[in-house]
# Entry
Amino acid sequence: MYPFDLEVFRLINVGSRSVFGDLFFLFWSSVGLGYVQVALTVLSHFVLKTKSFTWPIIASVAIAGLPLAQGLKATVPRERPSHMQFTIREEAFMFSSFPSGHTATSFGVATIVILMTWGTKNVKWGWLLAVAAACVGVSRIYRGVHWPSDVIGGVFCGLLAGAIVYYLMLSRSPKTASS
# Structure
């Protein structure tokens, strides 16, 4: 895995630098913060009237970010690429690298929205959030704080968190009578 991580990391972190990229990925990295996602969800609750999505999204962020991402960070001691001499570092982190919490929470949001809107014309919003989540993941590599495999791990944490929340929603919904 290390050769893959090193090659893709260098391609994105070192080989793709630009002023536009610096600003673009700073923005997406900020959007990947769990508290920013919760704030945007609450704002959306009041402004866009997305009430049915508020608690599922907040729960997905919480599950992806706390027990999954932070739990794995506590058990998988992995040095961040920001400690490497060749890294163009835009953030300083001292904690374990695997998985990317920003990516986990972002994919948690996208997953629950996709699942809640599946089979409707509104599923496009979930897919748009998945593209945004991918931008968050790439931003973590670009900014020099995560390996590509950390981002992949974050994707899986987010998918799992969204699926858990959706399953819990289904198990709590009233059962329909079968004919």
